[in-house]
Amino acid sequence: MNYLSQKKAIKQGKIESVYFIHGNQSFLMEDFLQQLINYVQTKEQQPNILNFPLSETPIEVIVEEAETMSFFGGNKIIVIKDFYAVSSKKIDSKFDHDFKQLERYLENPAPETILVILAPYEKLDERKKLTKLLKKTTVVEANTFDEKTLKEWLITEAKTRNVTLEMNVAEQMMERVGTNLLLLTQEIDKLALYAGEGEEITEDMVKLLVSRTLEQDIFALIDLAITNQTEKALIIFHDLLRQKEEPLKILSLLTRQIRIYYQVKELLKRGYSHKEMAQLVKLHPYVVKLASQKVHLFEEAQLKQLMKEAAECDYSIKTGKIEKALAVELYIFKLAH
Fold it and tell me: What is the rounded (10 degree) CA torsion for 254, 259, 260, 262?
């Protein structure tokens, strides 16, 4: 079951004895764990919560703690952090863990204990017996969301704050903030407070309250420049300078975006899907989707030339041949032409 489905199950009171949470999104892991703790706290005065990093505690000690009834009664939540035993990653550990103890526990978990195992790894070593056993428990995948799931997540987060959010508004938020879950959560908090309980977050509210991230500003700047809206592109550039952004950093991000366009254009020619391209260039599929909508505005030779000119611009700045803000401004004019 995926992350959103498991969160919904907790809200419905379906609590399991063992949760195996794995993936590359630590934010989602902590968010899921907090929701689990919050639910148990509403049912009990104060659950006993114990955290054990695997690198600092023998697994035998953790299992023994899981099997021991809480002194104060009620549920006990035991969290094993950085569970590297299911990955192929080489870890120097000061303990010789006896994982057979955990394997035995998984076959018959203690009813008064909720065991949460956090494995911050996208890929697991499926050959290991322990991995196979954990895959039979309640599995929560905390990997990068695709575009559709990210929108659903935003809508769900809005509901938890007693406000509503339509799909088109979720899309607008992603266009301004990108796909960073922590930043999106902060913006949802702000919008929910502004809208008020029981109200709807609108596009006008997003325009009023949600600022673009630096990366999204760069994307907008290039978009304006290549569609011959140079004046508006320069307004964004000078706004960034007023915000004390370093011109060399802006140039670096401009170059990165041009490189993404080049990579996406090449992969589109070869017939790759957005998902496949995202995996190859190690970007979120939504970023690849946005890039693929713009690459038709460039010829391959133009993108190569723009990357070359960006390198020359960088060299001119670092060797003191030209003032840095002026150099980047001239580069923006080249983008427009």
Answer: 130
- Segment 138-179, tens digit of pLDDT: 999 998 888 899 999 999 999 989 999 999 999 999 988 988
Give the predicted TM-score (pTM) of the model: 0.76
| 163 and 277 housed in the same domain | no
Mean pLDDT of 278-284: 86
Closest C-alpha to 75, from 44, 118, 29, 36: 44
pLDDT at 326: 95
Same domain? 8 vs 137: yes
- The CATH number of the domain holding residue 274 is 1.20.272.10
Q: For every residue of 158-203, which 3-state class applies, written as one string?
A: HHHCCCEECHHHHHHHHHHHCCCHHHHHHHHHHHHHHHCCCCEECH
Please give the residue range of the domain that contains residue 237.
Answer: 214-336
The whole-angstrom distance between residue 11's C-alpha and the CA centroid of its chain comes to 23
Please tell me what DSSP assigns to residue 2. B
Q: What angle do CA 9, 15, 21 make, to 5 degrees?
A: 80
Residue 1 pLDDT > 60: no
